[in-house]
Design brief:
The protein is mainly α and 193 residues long. The protein has ten helices and two strands, in the order E-E-H-H-H-H-H-H-H-H-H-H. Helix content is 74%, strand content 2%. It has a two-stranded antiparallel sheet.
Length: 193
């Protein structure tokens, strides 16, 4: 059963996968109709974008998120969702630009983590480390994630000494973290002591 701003609909469930797809398509049509008629609930655009994403309709989702960003340029969620669509569609450069703009407008550290991952995939480890350092300096709430990201970036780049140094620092700050302890132990076998 789906309830939106003005419509309620029920579809029979005999083939769960096919029904879910049909249900999703029907739900998107209801939302599109509501939006075109000016009947927009607070989450209509967001649900519509997520629906397009789930169906792999990334271009439509991106177009919708662009509208949402114009309406609310300081809402980081719109940039994150649009960037995810761009990544899934294979457009890493546009995703990168989206995350950079999202960080510029919101200063939310999640953008920096995503940029680190993009640059690691591109094997641009210096830029990935630069974003990790910015994230580490951004605040106490996310510092642990970014210090750990330093370990991973250095390790993937083949800089085992840098990774070990970062792991030593990490385990000193967060001694109870098992993943940090595992990285420290592994990296201690990769360097000359």
């Amino acid at each position: 059963l789906i309830v939106t701003g003005v419509q309620t609909c029920a579809l029979p469930i005999s083939n769960p996968v096919g029904t879910i797809t049909r249900l999703c398509i029907h739900f998107l049509q209801v939302l599109e109709n509501e939006i075109s008629n000016g009947i927009v609930s607070e989450n209509s655009y967001n649900f519509l974008g997520l629906g397009y994403y789930q169906l792999g309709e990334y271009d439509q989702a991106v177009s919708l998120y662009e509208k949402m960003i114009r309406m609310e340029p300081d809402n980081g969620q719109h940039y994150l969702q649009m960037g995810e669509c761009l990544e899934q569609s294979g457009d890493k450069d546009e995703a990168e630009a989206c995350y950079e703009k999202g960080y510029s407008n919101t200063k939310e550290p999640e953008f920096l983590l995503r940029l680190c991952r993009i640059y690691m995939k591109k094997k641009d480890y210096d830029r990935a480390l630069s974003y990790a350092k910015t994230g580490e300096e951004a605040g106490e709430d996310t510092r642990q994630d970014f210090i750990f990201m330093n370990i991973i970036i250095c390790e993937r780049s083949g800089d085992y000494q840098g990774a070990f140094d970062a792991a030593s620092r990490y385990t000193g700050l967060y001694p109870e973290d098992e993943r940090g302890q595992k990285e420290y132990t592994f990296l201690s076998t990769r360097i000359d002591q």
